[in-house]
């Protein structure tokens, strides 16, 4: 799933979710894989692998087994990494 505009609400996917550079998501994201290039205002839940791009802005908590944060990214929230990821 690729989001290129503005979206308010919960995002759920069984696959990869991509938040494009010009996109803004306001809500919780449930996905096994996540690539944030734009702005996310909400929590990331049940993620196996999350990548935060160099111009990304994340305002929320991230729960992921694996997390990559590019230089230049902005994160405001808590990060939880563990072997067990629980989806809520």
Count of individual beta strands: 13
Measure the end-to-end span.
20 Å
In terms of DSSP E residues, the strand content is over 45%
> Which sequence of SSEs, written as H and E, runs from N to C?
EEEEEEEEEEEEE
Shape: globular
Number of helices: 0
Give the fraction of residues assigned to helices.
under 10%
- Measured on Cα atoms, how large is the radius of gyration? 11 Å
Summing up helix and strand content along with how strands pair, one would put the structural category as mainly beta
Mean pLDDT: 93
- Please indicate the count of domains: 1
- Poorly predicted runs: none
Instruction: Please describe the biggest sheet, giving its number of strands, its sense, and whether it closes into a barrel.
Output: 8 strands, parallel
List keywords for this structure.
single chain, 88 residues, mainly beta, eight-stranded parallel beta sheet, five-stranded parallel beta sheet, globular
């Amino acid at each position: 799933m690729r989001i290129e505009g503005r979206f308010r609400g919960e995002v759920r996917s069984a696959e990869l979710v991509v938040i494009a550079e010009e996109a803004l998501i306001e809500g919780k994201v449930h996905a096994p894989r996540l690539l944030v290039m734009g702005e996310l205002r909400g929590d990331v839940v049940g993620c196996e692998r999350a990548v935060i791009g160099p111009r990304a802005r994340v305002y929320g908590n991230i729960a992921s087994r694996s997390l990559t944060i590019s230089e230049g990214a902005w994160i405001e929230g808590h990060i939880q990494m563990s072997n067990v990821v629980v989806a809520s």
